[in-house]
Amino acid sequence: MKTFDELLENYAQVAVEVGVNLQKGQILVLQAPVEAKELVRKIVRRAYEKGAKYVHVELNDEQLTYIKFTYAPEEAFTFYPMWRAKGFEEMAAEGAAFLQIYSPNPDLLKDVDPKRYATAAKTAGTALKAYKSYLMEDKAPWSLISAPTESWAKKVFPDLPVEKAIDLFWGKIFSISRVNTDDPIAAWKTHNEQLHRKVAELNEKQYKQLIYTAPGTNLTIELPENHRWNGGFSLTPTGIPFNPNIPTEEVFTMPHREGVNGVVRSTKPLNYGGNLIENFSFTFKNGKVVDFAAEKGYETLKHLLDTDEGARYLGEVALVPHDSPISNSNILFYNTLYDENASCHLALGEAYPTCLTGGEKMSKEELKAAGANDSLIHEDFMIGSAELNIDGITKDGKREAIFRNGNWA
Ligand code: ZN
Ligand code: ZN
Fold first, then answer.
1. Could you tell me the distance, in angstroms and rounded to a whole number, from the CA of residue 248 to the centre of ligand 1?
2. Which domains are seen in the chain, by residue range?
3. Which ligand sits closest to the CA of 343?
4. Which of 25, 112, 130, 225 shows a CA-CA span of 20 to 30 A to 359?
5. In angstroms, how far apart are the furthest CA atoms of the chain?
6. What's the 380 CA to ligand 2 centre distance in angstroms?
């Protein structure tokens, strides 16, 4: 039985070697909540041991975020320190690796006017667009992991005293991130190979359309010509594999921007910037959200959809079996990194150019012409359940079962 310290050490190893797969002489940029400082120290040490040239660490504190959104003037949300945006872009251009410990408090901004967050997100999205494109196009290795914080653990395990909740939470994270295995690096190799096999099958099929049916869902999604499914590790332009998400259970591609029609209902809440949007649905016509509803967080959802034109179109379609490790834990995490890997999902907003053959070499105009969506946002939302069926329409018009009752047919 491994001690907590050994498991945390393994987790740091998985983040550095499997997540961003840091190479000798590379810069590592690490963003993390202050509460994860123990893990941060292990990651930084390991990064230097692996030969990092320089590690840039940014710690964030949710209380500082709360103070800003509560007390700062409106102009604070239309301002972005451009030196930081330029610095990030510069580091990406130099081939730095970007690692983030993503642990937002799901209720942090629930009493704050959602317009404030929407404005801040748009300002940051605009300022960071050039840097973000390095990540969206796999030009710089990047990875998201997570670590429990007090506020988040209380939300996920409300019936437990907070210390117990955090302990239990760590155990779940170690298990779903394959860190508690004898050889986590080997476990990830096997897992990546399994995902790549699924990807190869779907790429071979080149379905023209996917048809989703479930209670409250009746949706047709057209896939663009030469679409490419991805999953497991990605490759940098020089062929270095990295895993953008730890954990990851999905295979994904892009829908055709104008080829989405019908209705889809969410099956899990969406945590958008410290605000929960719950029991929501969208009606699509020729790709665009023309109607929507939400039992909770309607205003937040409205602001999200109003970010820009592309925010009302889809940029990702992802398949995750209902019978998968995270889903079987039966825990609602209120964190997209975990919830999206427990459920089939779609994303509003920008598409990954790597989901088209040769897409990473296309101009903005070429991508749009090929069916890819562009937006400042990329926001996954969960639609999977044990009642979801998905059919694929082949190029010659045959209808095949892909998912039955939430799992691969
Ligand atoms: Zn996804
Ligand atoms: Zn996504």
1. 9
2. 4-176 (3.40.1830.10), 206-233+241-408 (no CATH)
3. 1
4. 25
5. 59
6. 5
